[in-house]
């Protein structure tokens, strides 16, 4: 095959060719280029519906690419510096799950920080792998979990020489990075794979002065949310691979991924990859500048602390993503979630999330300085109108999980609904988490402790959206029958 | 030759003025700026294709946005004008000798340059020594001000495009903070007539009443704006626009105006029932 340049977009080009052929469709989808569903076509637009098409020879097939999708994946691999790139249409969740399922089978161990996204622990339920949690450490002022220190990872590796892989957040939701290069070298010395959850790290591959990307330091796999900082459509994502067998990884992906891959999502990956390859450096320079500007303005208001690279400590905060705009709100006397709610309800500003002590506003190429002024002004108003004394504000602490059973065993074990207040000391059979950020407070197989219960109660009082349990009110949790 | 400027007032209604010639066209960082000469309305300014002012009817808007608050507030020394790069509001303000300082905050320097060059009728007083022009985002400018202005005039474009931030709750709240204890804010309040404008008008009203203890709406008849029926907001910390209206004081000034007078002042706050209903829905 001839080498294509990054200016090409094979899937986009194939879809345009296909449209110009005016093929009569007697295949799915049944809306037949939108003609069969006028209301939907009016809402989404005719252009959108005409490319919502089925896999076919001229358009290739996501489950087994041989032509244009294959070319597009090769271009993506080149752009990201990986051996192979898989287009994913079931979200980064499926990319994370595929990584874990590639690395571990039932009963095998995987080393990971506890502040992983629920998708990683879901993968443990599916695969039956056993987590070895590394305490990510907490910045006590901010109440946020950090990265893993290299020494802690080394200890976990030495204590669990049979572990198959190490999973690393690169970066965390808040923008904190571990020393991925050192962890990768260490893991490889012990024949373990390194898997990176780069749900928030797409821009690391293109911007300058940003933390190192997983592929650049030799990690084995990375799940990259193109739809976050990369600009593609929601639910589209990439799984990058170095070294593993492409065929085996694809088999694992195909265990759970749809056979009706959406061409809206696939083409959005192709177009976004081209955009990033050609213009990514300038794009992320602008994003970083906007974030720096907003940070400086927010810090001038007083009371708020918009943090950045000053957190870097050479270990648990090895690097920090300066395109992130995370802000500590506790000194205004408001929980992050309260500021998050006020911004939306009072000021029509929707930010990414608020937790106990922080808010995170997601800054991207789609932003304008004018909009940032609104955010900053609204924060200034919230302080003027709602500021309280800080007393009584709970700061987030790391709650060391007490893993009693493997996640799969606990999830499938016989369990019963137990009122929260009576669940102390029981083994949890499901997840409890605030969403966003979707980092479990309790995962299946963990013991319910007093600390955990206090945290859940406080999060509920402050208005966090709790999820993961069978009981939608999170008044009862499933506990394993003993 | 038939050359027409057309603005869509709704999806189904257009408003056209026959153009004699185009005087200026420029694209700034923020918007497209055009100036035309017409036989009926004289020279007129449009931003992104939306009518801002014509030489023929701009006096209505500028007199109503300035003289109404000036006839209510007893001692206005320091005024902030946000937007209003055409200079019309400033032209009316400099007629008051007690005003010592006028800060004009306009985001788009190119609007001011074009108006200074091509619209001396409105921009002629921008060089008054009491006027300082700040090229900045109004929302940002006002954020850092506290207890500083006796009067804030929000002479904004529509609530989309660069003027968007000037219709937000955070902006009105910041204005409240920037005013002295006796200060007031007057704003361009959109139109109640066509539904899209009316929604913007209602939203602005809701946000202002959330921020100020006194908030009243008044109207004027502006032929070149959509529907011709236009509203202004008067939001204040202490003074009521009608109860505290100093009619004799204003008349004693002997100021010559083409639209505004003491009877109009009181009458402008008398609103049609459908407008009252729209406003009360938000209260």
UniProtKB/TrEMBL annotation, chain A:
Residue ranges annotated for the Orn/Lys/Arg decarboxylases family 1 pyridoxal-P attachment site domain, each copy included: 223-237
One term of GO molecular function: carboxy-lyase activity
Pfam family membership, one: OKR_DC_1
InterPro entries for this protein: Orn/Lys/Arg_deCO2ase_major_dom, Orn_Lys_Arg_decarboxylase-I, Prn/Lys/Arg_de-COase_C, Prn/Lys/Arg_de-COase_C_sf, PyrdxlP-dep_Trfase, PyrdxlP-dep_Trfase_major
Keyword Cytoplasm: no
Keyword Lyase appears in the UniProt entry: yes
Cofactor: pyridoxal 5'-phosphate
Keyword line: Decarboxylase, Lyase, Pyridoxal phosphate
UniProt similarity note: Belongs to the Orn/Lys/Arg decarboxylase class-I family.
Name of the protein this chain belongs to: Arginine/lysine/ornithine decarboxylase
Organism from which the protein derives: Sporolactobacillus nakayamae
Automatic annotation (TrEMBL), chain B:
Function according to Swiss-Prot or TrEMBL: Catalyzes the irreversible transfer of a propylamine group from the amino donor S-adenosylmethioninamine (decarboxy-AdoMet) to putrescine (1,4-diaminobutane) to yield spermidine.
Single annotated GO MF: spermidine synthase activity
Any single GO CC term annotated in Swiss-Prot or TrEMBL for this entry: cytosol
Family, similarity comment: Belongs to the spermidine/spermine synthase family.
Gene3D superfamilies the UniProt entry points to: Spermidine synthase, tetramerisation domain (2.30.140.10), Vaccinia Virus protein VP39 (3.40.50.150)
Subunit comment: Homodimer or homotetramer.
Keyword Transferase: yes
Keyword field: Polyamine biosynthesis, Spermidine biosynthesis, Transferase
GO BP field: spermidine biosynthetic process
Reaction(s) catalysed by this chain's protein: S-adenosyl 3-(methylsulfanyl)propylamine + putrescine = S-methyl-5'-thioadenosine + spermidine + H(+)
Keyword check for tRNA-binding: no
Source taxonomy: Bacteria, Bacillati, Bacillota, Bacilli, Bacillales
One Pfam short name: Spermine_synt_N
Name of the protein in question: Polyamine aminopropyltransferase
PANTHER family for this protein: SPERMIDINE SYNTHASE, SPERMIDINE/SPERMINE SYNTHASE
Pathway assigned in UniProt: Amine and polyamine biosynthesis; spermidine biosynthesis; spermidine from putrescine: step 1/1
UniProt-annotated binding residues for S-methyl-5'-thioadenosine: 31, 106, 137-138, 162
CDD domains: AdoMet_MTases (cd02440)
């Amino acid at each position: 095959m001839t080498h294509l340049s990054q200016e090409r977009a094979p899937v986009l080009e194939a879809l345009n060719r296909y449209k110009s052929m005016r093929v009569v469709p007697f295949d799915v989808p049944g809306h037949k280029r939108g003609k069969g569903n006028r209301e939907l076509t009016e809402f989404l637009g005719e252009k959108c519906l005409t490319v919502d098409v089925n896999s076919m020879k001229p358009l290739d097939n996501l489950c087994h690419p041989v032509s244009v999708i294959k070319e597009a994946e090769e271009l993506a691999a080149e752009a990201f510096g990986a051996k192979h790139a898989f287009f994913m249409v079931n979200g980064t969740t499926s990319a994370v799950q595929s990584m874990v399922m590639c690395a571990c089978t039932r009963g095998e161990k995987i080393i990971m920080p506890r502040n992983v996204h629920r998708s990683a622990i879901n993968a443990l339920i599916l695969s039956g792998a056993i987590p070895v949690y590394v305490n990510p450490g907490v910045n006590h002022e901010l109440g946020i979990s950090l990265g893993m220190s290299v020494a802690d990872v080394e200890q976990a590796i030495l204590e669990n020489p049979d572990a198959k892989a190490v999973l690393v957040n690169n970066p965390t939701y808040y923008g904190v990075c571990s020393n991925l290069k050192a962890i990768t070298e260490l893991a490889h010395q012990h024949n373990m794979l390194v898997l990176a959850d780069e749900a928030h790290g797409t821009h690391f591959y293109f911007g300058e002065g940003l933390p190192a990307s997983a592929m650049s330091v030799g990690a084995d796999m990375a799940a990259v949310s193109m739809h976050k900082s990369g600009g593609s459509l929601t639910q589209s994502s990439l799984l990058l691979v170095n070294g593993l067998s492409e065929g085996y990884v694809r088999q694992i992906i195909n265990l759970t991924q749809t056979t009706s891959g959406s061409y809206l999502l696939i083409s959005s990956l192709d177009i976004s990859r081209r955009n990033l390859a050609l213009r990514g450096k300038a794009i992320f320079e602008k994003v970083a500048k906007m974030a720096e500007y907003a940070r400086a303005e927010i810090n001038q208001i007083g009371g708020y602390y918009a943090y950045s690279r000053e957190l870097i400590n050479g270990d648990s905060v090895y690097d920090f993503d300066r395109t992130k705009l995370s802000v500590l709100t506790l000194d205004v006397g408001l929980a992050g979630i309260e500021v998050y709610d006020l911004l939306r309800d009072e000021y029509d500003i929707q930010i990414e999330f608020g937790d106990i002590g922080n808010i995170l506003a997601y800054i991207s190429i789609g932003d304008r300085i004018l909009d940032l002024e609104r955010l900053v002004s609204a924060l200034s108003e919230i302080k003027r109108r709602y500021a309280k004394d800080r007393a009584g504000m709970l700061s987030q602490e790391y709650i060391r999980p007490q893993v009693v059973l493997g996640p799969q065993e606990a999830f499938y074990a016989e369990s019963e609904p137990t009122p929260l207040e009576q669940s102390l000391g029981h083994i949890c059979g499901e997840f409890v988490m605030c969403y966003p950020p979707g980092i479990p407070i309790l995962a299946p197989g963990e013991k319910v402790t007093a600390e955990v219960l206090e945290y859940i109660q406080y999060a509920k009082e402050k208005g966090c959206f709790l999820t993961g349990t069978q009981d939608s009110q999170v008044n009862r949790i499933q506990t394993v029958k003993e | 030759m038939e050359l027409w400027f057309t603005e869509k007032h709704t999806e189904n209604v257009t408003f056209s003025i026959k153009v004699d010639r185009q005087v200026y066209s420029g694209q700034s960082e923020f918007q497209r700026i055009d100036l035309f000469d017409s036989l009926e309305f004289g020279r007129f300014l449009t931003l992104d294709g939306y009518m801002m002012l014509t030489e023929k009817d701009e006096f209505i808007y500028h007199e109503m946005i300035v003289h109404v608050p000036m006839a209510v507030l007893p001692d206005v020394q320091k005024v902030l004008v946000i937007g209003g790069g055409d200079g019309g509001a400033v032209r009316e303000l400099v007629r008051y000798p007690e005003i010592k300082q006028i800060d004009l905050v306009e985001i788009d320097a190119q609007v001011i340059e074009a108006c200074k060059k091509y619209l001396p009728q409105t921009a002629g007083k921008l060089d008054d020594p009491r006027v300082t022009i700040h090229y900045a985002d109004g929302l940002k400018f006002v954020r850092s001000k506290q207890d500083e202005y006796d009067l804030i005039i929000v002479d904004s474009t529509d609530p989309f495009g660069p003027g968007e931030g000037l219709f937000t709750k955070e902006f009105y709240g910041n204005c409240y903070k920037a005013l002295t204890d006796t200060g007031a804010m007057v704003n361009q309040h959109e139109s109640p007539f066509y539904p899209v404008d009316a929604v913007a008008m209602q939203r602005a009203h809701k946000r202002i009443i959330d921020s100020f203890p006194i908030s009243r709406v008044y109207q004027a008849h502006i032929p070149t704006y959509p529907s011709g029926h236009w509203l202004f907001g008067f939001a204040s910390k202490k003074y009521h626009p009608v109860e505290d209206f100093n009619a004799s004081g204003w008349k004693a000034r002997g100021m010559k105006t083409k639209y505004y007078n003491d009877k109009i002042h009181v009458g402008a706050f008398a609103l049609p029932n459908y407008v009252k209903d729209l406003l009360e829905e938000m209260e």
